[in-house]
Amino acid sequence: MEKRYSLFNAYVWGIAGLGLILLATHIPKFQDGYCLLDVLFIGVMVACGEAVAVPFPRGKGTASMATPLMFTAIVLYGPAIGMWMAALATLRKRDLSGEVPLGVVLFNRGMLTLCAYVFAKVYQFVYGEFGSIEFPRGLFAFILAASAFTLLNAILIGKGLAFQLRTSFASIWRRNIAWMLPNMFALFPVGALMVLVVQQTSPLVLVFFYLPLLVTRVSLQKYIDLWDTYSEMAAALSIALDARDSYTHGHSVRVSEYSYKLAKRLGLSDDEAELIKYVGLLHDVGKVGMSDSLLKKEGPFTYDEYEMMKKHSEIGADIIKAMKFLGKGEQWVRHHHERWDGTGFPAGLKGEEIPLGARIIACADAFDAMTTDRPYKEKMSFEEAKRELLECSGTQFDPKVVEAMIQIIDEDLLRK
């Protein structure tokens, strides 16, 4: 953990330092007062775009809609002005108020400066000059340069988030970046058109280009809102289920947390671990189909009652299946009462036939049930529950999952 943190700090300050060097060696020169006013106007437009940036689903990063305006400044006024605009016009209120750590603020300045520098170098290499753009060679150069800027920016942000969140770059790329790139690339022709229009008229006309930028911003925000809605819906269903039975209140949340830890311990990808966290939250959602008299019965079930209760896993799987966000976890809910030796339900699956997600949830579910007071039994201590898991390893539970669960329990005990 400390190594990851030190890597994050080294990365942040390394990019920040590189950006400061580039800024120090590229001091802008203005031809006249009109040029300065034009640049200041575009800078204000960039700042307005930054004010409505879209937050990433994971971590504290954001995606800005102002990059086409930065591209315009670089092409029309050269790399030095473009780099300083990228560094300064993108500062936000929270950057200046101390809400964001200084290192992160400087990292963002350095990253954007470096990306602007790369844009300028690619554009200059292909087109050869700044101050104007002509088609088709200028458009080709612009799109190549914008692609270099966008991909480098995505890589630098992704790597930083991976260090910060102590997760894989691939996971950050899939969750935070990959879905956003098509929208960003779609703005490149708009950026080129901005340059063409400004060189023929005035920077004031850039106000009219805010509409397509805002449309893109809205579409990206809808994606984030949809993800949040799914998360909130899963949590709400879990709370509604737990509210029916005071003895199991909080059970679903704890099973979700244990399942997530197990998934990470067993080497599942970050996406799979996050999915199992939500599926674990709803592993007993099928109990909404059970009557209160059955769900809250304090004594042992009759044969018919037990057969009825066993149906909750299949009811839950059908509910999960209907949810696009969680549908991949349907089989985990359906089979989380299977046993390693093949004597479980509903299908009597055995060993590796049982989906790994179901084996993980089964172990997490059993451990929390053992360590929680129920109407028909008192809770066990963590040590007693550990012994029970070990005794049932190879019969009720997957031995590998039990081994991982014991490690998690020991770590939790050390923290207490």
Describe the structure.
With 416 residues, this protein is an all-alpha fold. It contains 20 helices and two strands. It has helices at 2-24, 33-51, 67-77, 79-88, 93-96, 102-126, 137-165, 169-178, 181-186, 188-200, 210-243, 251-265, 270-281, 292-295, 303-309, 312-321, 330-334, 356-370, 382-392, 399-415; strands at residues 54-55, 62-63. It has a two-stranded antiparallel ribbon with strand order 1-2. The longest helix is centred in the middle third of the chain and has 34 residues, at 210-243. It is elongated. The chain starts with a helix and ends with a helix.
What can be said about this structure in brief?
With 416 residues, the chain is an all-alpha fold. Helix content is 67%, strand content 1%.
Write the layout of secondary structure elements.
Elements: H1 2-24, H2 33-51, E1 54-55, E2 62-63, H3 67-77, H4 79-88, H5 93-96, H6 102-126, H7 137-165, H8 169-178, H9 181-186, H10 188-200, H11 210-243, H12 251-265, H13 270-281, H14 292-295, H15 303-309, H16 312-321, H17 330-334, H18 356-370, H19 382-392, H20 399-415
Helix pairs in contact: 1-6, 2-3, 3-4, 3-6, 3-10, 4-6, 6-7, 7-8, 12-13, 12-18, 12-20, 19-20
